[in-house]
Amino acid sequence: MAEPSASCSAAAPGGGGGGGGSSPSAQAAGREGRGWSEAQFRPYTFETRPIPRLRHGDPRAEELIENEEPVVLTDTNLVYTALKWDVDYLQENIGNGDFSVYRATTHKFLYYDEKKIANVKNFKPKSSREEMKFSTFVEQLQDIQQQGSGERLYLQQTLNDTVGRKIVVDFLGFNWNWINRQQAKRGWGQLTSNLLLIGMEGNVTPAHYDEQQNFFAQIKGYKRCILFSPDQFECLYPYPVHHPCDRQSQVDFDNPDYERFPNFQNVVGYETVVGPGDVLYIPMYWWHHIESLLNGGITITVNFWYKGAPTPKRIEYPLKAHQKVAIMRNIEKMLGEALGNPQEVGPLLNMMIKGRYD
Ligand SMILES: O=C(O)CCC(=O)C(=O)O
After folding, report:
1. Residue 214 Cα to ligand 1 middle (Å)
2. Domain segments of the chain: what residues?
3. Cis check: omega of the bond before 230, within 30 degrees of 0
4. Domain 38-307: which topology?
5. Cα–Cα separations (whole angstroms), residue 261 to 160, 245, 252
6. What is the DSSP letter of 34?
7. What are 93-139's pLDDT values in tens digits?
8. Torsion angle of alpha carbons 219, 146, 99, 136, nearest 10°?
9. CB under 6 Å to ligand 1: residues?
10. Which of 154, 299, 303 to mutate for ligand 1's pocket (most ligand atoms within 8 Å of CB)?
11. pLDDT digits (tens, 9 = 90+) for 266-293
12. Long-range contact set of residues 135-143: C-beta below 8 Å, sequence gap at least 24
């Protein structure tokens, strides 16, 4: 993987071999017969290259996962038993638990950590979370669809022991054999959660990175996933660690402010569209922007979040981009606490990291 650079240039996943070309005609050929078209994409300013789509037995797929580079696996059958899930089936079977539903008046559902809200004076979240029964979510979804109020909902709930018997049976039928072997081969820690995401067409989860490995299993509808390698950090301007939007990019992809975020002009991403049965590997610390296609109906996804492998005892230099991000986060946290003025830490830290490791 390329070293971080101010120009934020990207290396191709799989050493340039796996993705094929990035020309519009190559992409057009790739989408043939897959049930979506580029007219359903939101327009952005930056260049992207395709994420390889491979069968799970393909040695190139194994190599990409081993190297912590993204890949779409087309035939894992990971969530085969859930491919019948739709809103009606879930309403009937998902049980009487509470579900976290986010409400927004824009298409962007920018994540914020509620525990960090007090750290920033006058922080005004652009979406709100409500706990509700699944049937209430469905009623509200139908109301919004009928009224066309412009309001949007996004259900994002960790699967837990309140789900009904049929969902448990479906869950037990997931391809645990394959995914457990991946977990063991990669030396990952425990499966921390499975997040169920039910989104309206056009919903967007803006670019952010997670500190976990992720197998992202698409069940219903199509999602466009744009990923950026950790070496694009300088182009994506994350909020400071103490901020509720920690790990999220400050750049508004719909209307980038190049004066504030000049390196965003150099950002290069990788993209794919996942549909039912596809599993996208989103490596830890890789940025991801995810949009449910316009006019594509409801989308349903279940992800599998794993703790990363323990950090090696012997650190090898040069450090990889994601290791620098991890170190930076730790220092930023410590400095934030020590200085009591976390606002000042971002630029200071950037300077330190550049001087220390570049
Ligand atoms: O599907 C989405 O909208 C966001 C999912 C996501 O960010 C994740 O699985 O890490």
Report:
1. 9
2. 38-307, 321-353
3. no
4. Jelly Rolls (2.60.120)
5. 40, 17, 10
6. S
7. 999 999 999 999 999 999 999 999 999 999 999 999 999 999 999 99
8. -130
9. 197, 205, 210, 214, 216, 288, 290, 301, 303
10. 303
11. 999 999 999 999 999 999 999 999 999 9
12. 135/91, 137/99, 137/101, 137/198, 138/87, 138/91, 140/101, 141/87, 141/200, 141/298
Higher pLDDT, 350 or 322: 322
Instruction: Write down the residue that tokens 């991000």 correspond to.
Output: 325
Q: How many residues does the chain have?
A: 358
DSSP 305: E
Cα–chain center distance at 34:
22
Q: CA 275 to CA 272: how far, in whole Å?
A: 10
Which residue is listed with tokens 């950026």?
228
First-residue to last-residue Cα distance in the chain: 16
Tell me, in angstroms, the distance from the centre of ligand 1 to residue 102's CA. 13
* Full-model pTM: 0.90
CB-CB neighbours of 52 under 10 Å: 23
99: which 2 tokens? 């579900």
DSSP code of 125? Answer: -
DSSP letter at 146?
H
Q: 256: which 2 tokens?
A: 């980038």
Asked if pLDDT for residue 236 goes beyond 70, the answer is yes
**Which helix (H) or strand (E) segment is 103 a member of?**
strand 99-104
Query: What Å distances lie between residue 1 and 42, 161, 209, 326, CA to CA?
Result: 28, 40, 17, 17
Topology of 321-353 in CATH?
Helix Hairpins (1.10.287)
3-state DSSP assignment of residue 135 = helix
Ligand 1 geometric centre to CA of 282 (Å): 10
Scanning the structure block, which residue is given the tokens 């448990």?
A: 168
Tokens describing residue 73 = 């696996």
More confidently predicted of 25 and 200: 200
